[in-house]
Specification:
The protein is α/β, with parallel strands linked by helices. Helix content is 40%, strand content 15%. It is globular and about 65 Å long.
């Protein structure tokens, strides 16, 4: 029934709780093609690469949508009802949908929180709360490949006859993922050591910093639901001035207001800081573009960061260095 409601209508939290029991009323219908649902583009891209022509994939959140703040619609719950398998990040990235996914699993659907498949010791956590893990695992291509394996294993479990195809598709995508990681390491090491400081709108680049040896500082916390205080702004302004950081970065899913305040604050102290570019953090670029793929998203971020902070990157980034990409890797 609720499929017919306007897809743009938002559901308040109490209504989500009311509608969740409906998940138990209808089980996915078996068929030759697996119906897959992914919450974000970063997950959806890997799911598409692995499932190939053995399934169809729908991504819940469009480009530019902040998953931290995403409010599920009635049509979203209809999509959950229609899916054979649901892949979501977990670690409370999609916090307003956690209950819906838990209930979907209870009703017999296959639900996989991909980031929660990683070993706990590989996850970053909030300094103030060891149980609050950083969900932005995709910022490290080396860690994200473990998610690729988790997706492969789930498909093999659901569709054993497709094992050979899933393993071939996974290995094909893995080659590009590993090549991108090598490129990122080389390009980012060209940034002078004293300015390997990545200042962004919110703290989404922790795994990136750990992998590529950058100090990462977000104006807001791990979630965009947090707000920066005046003290946070002043602290970051002083850091920019003292360490002569040349550039800071906005994000495609976060308003620029906070970053602009840092630039003005540094200017008032006699230090010029520029916006080094817009980075993709919680969402990829527009569909049909290179940055609208996971590989393209990381390529864009790495190339943009390196150039803005005084490093060297080839014209056209990593993609231009590749004579060809494996199937499913480019738009």
């Amino acid at each position: 029934m609720f499929v017919a409601y306007a897809t743009s209508m938002r559901i308040p939290s109490y209504a989500v709780t009311f509608l969740l029991p409906l998940l138990a009323l209808s089980q996915p219908v078996s068929g030759d093609e697996l119906r897959c649902l992914a919450t974000t583009g970063m997950i959806g891209d890997l799911v598409k690469a692995v499932v190939g022509d053995r399934g169809s994939v729908e991504v819940l959140m469009s480009p530019g949508v902040d998953p931290h703040l995403y409010q599920p619609t009635r049509s979203d719950l209809a999509k959950v009802l229609a899916a054979d398998v649901i892949f979501y990040n977990g670690l409370h990235l999609e916090g307003r949908m956690d209950e819906a996914f838990a209930r979907a699993q209870e009703s017999g659907r296959s639900v996989c929180a991909v980031a929660e498949q990683l070993p706990k010791q590989s996850l970053l956590h909030d300094a103030e709360d060891p149980e609050a893990h950083d969900p932005h695992v995709w910022m490290d291509p080396k860690s994200w490949r473990m998610v690729l394996f988790a997706i492969r294993d789930r498909f093999v479990l659901l569709d054993p006859d497709g094992r050979a195809a899933y393993e071939f598709n996974t290995n094909s995508y893995l080659k590009n993922l590993e090549a991108l990681d090598v490129y990122a390491s080389e390009v980012l090491q060209s940034v002078p050591a004293e300015v390997r400081v990545l200042v962004t709108a919110h703290d989404a680049f922790g795994y990136f910093g750990k992998r590529f040896e950058f100090e990462v500082i977000g104006l807001q916390g791990i979630s965009t639901e947090s707000e920066a205080s005046v003290q946070d702004v002043n602290r970051l302004v002083n850091l920019l001035v003292q360490r002569k950081i040349p550039a800071i970065f906005v994000e495609s899913t976060v308003p620029e207001k906070g970053i602009r305040a840092l630039i003005e604050g540094a200017k008032a102290q006699g230090h010029t800081v520029k916006i080094g570019g817009s980075l993709y953090s919680d969402a990829m670029g527009d569909a049909g573009t290179w940055s609208g793929t996971y590989l393209g998203m990381i390529d864009h971020n790495v190339t943009t960061i390196a150039r803005a902070l005084g490093g060297e990157a080839p014209q056209g980034g990593w993609r231009a260095t590749k004579s060809s990409l494996s199937p499913g890797s480019s738009p």
